[in-house]
Amino acid sequence: MTDRPDTARPDALRRETIAAHANGQHDAATGGVVGAWQPSTTFVRDAAYRTPASGDVYRRPHSPTTREAEAVIAALEGAEDAALFASGLAAMAALMRAAGGPRVAVQRGSYYGTQVLGERLADGAPITFDGASLESLAETVATRRPALVIIETPSNPFLDVIDIAEAARIAHAAGALLAVDSTTATPIHTRPLEHGADIVVHSATKALNGHSDVLAGALVPGHGGRVLFDAALDTRAKEGCVLSPFDAWLLTRGMRTVALRVREASRNALHLAQWLAAHPKVTTVRYPGLPTHPGHAVAAAQMDGGFGGLLSFDVAGGADAALGLAGRLRLIARATSLGGVETLIEHRHSIEPAATDMPPGLLRLAVGIEAVEDLVADLDQALAEVP
Length: 387
Prior knowledge:
Elements: E1 2-3, H1 15-20, E2 26-27, H2 64-77, E3 83-85, H3 88-98, E4 104-108, H4 112-121, E5 127-130, H5 134-144, E6 148-152, H6 164-173, E7 177-181, H7 186-189, E8 199-203, E9 217-221, H8 226-239, H9 245-255, H10 258-277, E10 282-286, H11 296-302, E11 310-315, H12 318-328, E12 333-334, E13 344-346, E14 362-366, H13 372-383
Parallel strand pairs: 4-5, 4-6, 6-7, 7-8, 12-13
Antiparallel strand pairs: 1-2, 3-9, 8-9, 10-11, 11-14, 13-14
């Protein structure tokens, strides 16, 4: 069991401090500054068959260690609650089912797994809209009347940026709720609830944990999303898509440095985006921190302290040139994921079906916290051999 010190209210602290102190939690039993890991799957009732003071009965609906990680995420988002799931997709699936499955509008060009979930829950006929166009969103909600709209900003891997406040206004006017996948932005750069969103989704696997060793997802409700959030919690309890206590403990450990990691990765990403944009063998760079990005002004208004650690770029020469470049990299690893301390590169065209219209020459660069000079040198030597 952990306690929170009375010296400062979390809502009066900056996010860097909330993260570093794990929302003020420590081990009350020993005084340890790091919270304890509670692995139990079940909890003893007393002689009168009353539950423990913690309220815990069974790990599926309740877990002490998981609640501690949830409290950190909620505080970072400026929310009263949060719920952790076994993965980002598990969190998204629970949210979509809670909203009625086929009545969910999904952004085209967003994370591929989200699009697949939308197709499956809508029996192959999902409600979709153009992620780079508020006009497309407005037309879609007016004609299809979804119960829930899901946007991702900045999106993965196209880095589309959507004005959250405007998307919320459009969704609410049509009687829909707005969920924002804020995995790329993280609560360090953007707090969607402050812009009118009803619920926030995170793949906590990514920057929140930041060490490529935890699979987790999170839902964070605002006041308008509470009913939907509670329905998703019911799905978590009844279907068992829960996070293990050890992963929750690792996640809390990882979040202690999230502000430092995210801002350093963002600085590196901006430097690399500028460098790649000037390279003669790169045809397109997608990064909202560049003034040439069509969503730069919106990103600058709703992102604080940076534009995230994710970018993508197209290599002249298409798929063969892009794959050849990736194969010559010596420091940057060829692997799926983003938000870790190490920089990763991925050729999305190789792993997504043709229906996603992924450009053959696109490489997704998930930037870490290495010395940016070393990253530039690695990309430079690999690009030098592009025909």
